[in-house]
Amino acid sequence: MISLTYNTATGAVALAQPAIIKPGNSVPVVLTFSAAPGTVNGLQLALVDNSTPRVLQAFLDVSGWNAESSTVFTGALDVSGALVTYMAERAATSLNLQLTVQLDGVKIDLPDLSLTVQPQGIPTDPSSTPGPIFYTATQSDGRYALLTVAGQYRIQSDGSFQLWNAAQSKWHTLAINGAAGVEVLTIGAGES
């Protein structure tokens, strides 16, 4: 499930909890506004990769959303098409979630959110699968690569540690160098 919160006072959007999804049929999506936002003219949700230009992997169009109340909207992100092909030979991968809202006739493209997509062979809850589970080397490495926690920090597949800079909407790599007692903390340039 992808659970999003939208703060109507600040216009900020966040994942309500870390999201890990897998290609397949569809993923439930819940968008909760902190207060009634006025007239919601449209909602769109796109899942895109990190290539240049970005490639659409999954999409939830305007017609796919249901208003459960004045503050809660639900839908289902179809992850059965391009995402299945994209993930066929990949380990866990961090993709970008792009939410566009149209409130009172004004279209707002919100900053990307990062979520992890696991290959189909990896259960999101290993305890739910009876019997032994055997992974390929790529899948095994992928279970621990690209861990993103609450959209605030993540660990990349190369082992680097990154923090989210909300002001720049970018990830920054942290590194520590130097001999004992004279360590230096370095913050790398921002990346999407």
Distance between the termini: 23 Å
**Could you say which overall geometry the principal axes of the C-alpha atoms support?**
globular
CATH 2nd-level architecture of the largest domain = Sandwich
What is the total domain count? 2
CATH fold description of the largest domain:
Immunoglobulin-like
- Report the strand count: 16
How confident overall, as mean pLDDT? 82
Largest sheet, described in full? 6 strands, mixed
Radius of gyration: 18 Å
Write the layout of secondary structure elements.
Blueprint: E1 2-6, E2 13-15, E3 20-21, E4 26-33, E5 40-48, E6 56-60, E7 66-67, E8 72-78, H1 82-87, E9 93-103, E10 106-109, E11 113-117, H2 137-144, E12 147-149, E13 153-155, E14 161-165, E15 170-177, E16 184-187
Parallel strand pairs: 1-4, 3-11
Antiparallel strand pairs: 1-2, 4-8, 5-6, 5-9, 7-8, 9-10, 9-11, 12-13, 13-14, 14-15, 15-16
Structure, explained:
By secondary structure, this protein is mainly β. It folds into 2 domains: 2-147, Immunoglobulin-like (Sandwich); 160-192, no CATH class. 7% of the residues lie in helices and 44% in strands. The protein has 2 helices and 16 strands. Strands 3, 5, 6, 9, 10 and 11 form a 6-stranded mixed sheet that branches. A 5-stranded mixed sheet has the order 2-1-4-8-7, with no helix packed on it. The model has no long low-confidence stretch (mean pLDDT 82).
Q: How is this structure best summarized?
A:
With 192 residues, the protein is mainly β. The chain has helices at residues 82-87, 137-144; strands at residues 2-6, 13-15, 20-21, 26-33, 40-48, 56-60, 66-67, 72-78, 93-103, 106-109, 113-117, 147-149, 153-155, 161-165, 170-177, 184-187.
